[in-house]
Amino acid sequence: MNHFSELSYILLNSLDWNKARIACLLQILTSLFKVRTVNLTQIASAFQTEASEESSYRRIQRFFQKFSFDLSFIAVMVNKLFLMSEPAVLIMDRTNWKWGKRDINILMVSIEHFGIGIPIYWMVLNKGGSSSFSERTQVLKKVLDILEIKNIKCLLADREFIGDEWFKFLIKENIPFIIRVKSCFLVEGIYKNSRIPINRLIKKKGRKAQLLHFPVKLWSNDLFASLEFRKTAKEPLIVVSNQQEFHSLNMYKWRWGIETFFGCLKSRGFRLEDTHMTSPAKIEKLLFILAIAFCYAYKKGELQSKLRSIKIKTHKRRQKSIFRLGLDLIRRAFFSNFKRLDPYFSLIEFFDIPLKEAA
Description:
This protein is α+β, with helices and mostly antiparallel strands. The chain contains 13 helices and ten strands.
């Protein structure tokens, strides 16, 4: 079996689509691995077909115009590949750029997995700038439909994801959260009968490296503030949480996992910003394809790293990321006439597909 056959069997046994549509998706995925860009012209040029490049390009266009997808497939794929048996740490963030005068603005929720965010749900906003309360709640409610509250350990988010109404929603839904706040926010509880900027907690910290779980009232919400001010930092890191059981400052650092994931979609992986699409509906479909490609490549890299550890360089970082390791492994196989997969690298067993059927 090779990567092409494996992907084909996984998709055929997991998606309730006709074979022609899955065949097109498979062509797009394999071409994406080869050319490492979402530019449709280049993807069409890498199609394994006797048809002309123009014909392949039109086929891709029709695919994006007509196909619909169920994001629950991504949740199933993530759960099966990464065995999410423990309550999930969710990370909410947004990435945006411009194509001409059009804003491309993606709001996403991922699951933290050993330093990287695994995509679980997203929405493409038809505007520039920050997400609104209604957009955040819409996305998070979809995630709750997939995971359920009992399977969520905590939600991490940066300073964009704030507001009295937002905090009230999270508290009402019993969602534990750790969210960074601006140092100028006025809170009660630092000094008696005073409402002062939250960064005044620095005086309470004294010589301690960190201050954890200091009770404050932000707007009308009773929360716990944690603060860290490193000498090299321009400003303190201040987070608030509705829980005391977590080491909030340490857990908040996991938020960087979604930034790492965005990097895999962009310059370090599939060059998402090369897309000429501006329609939110089409970009959401493109992200569906990229999520499949990312999960497939990352899991391959994870398996490879267990067989042979990735070298650690002098600056204590990996010589190559797990995602890039898997991506390079797949690309080498595709450019080597689809060499047979080592049984250890087969992902079919994760999807409960009998190997005999897939052989």
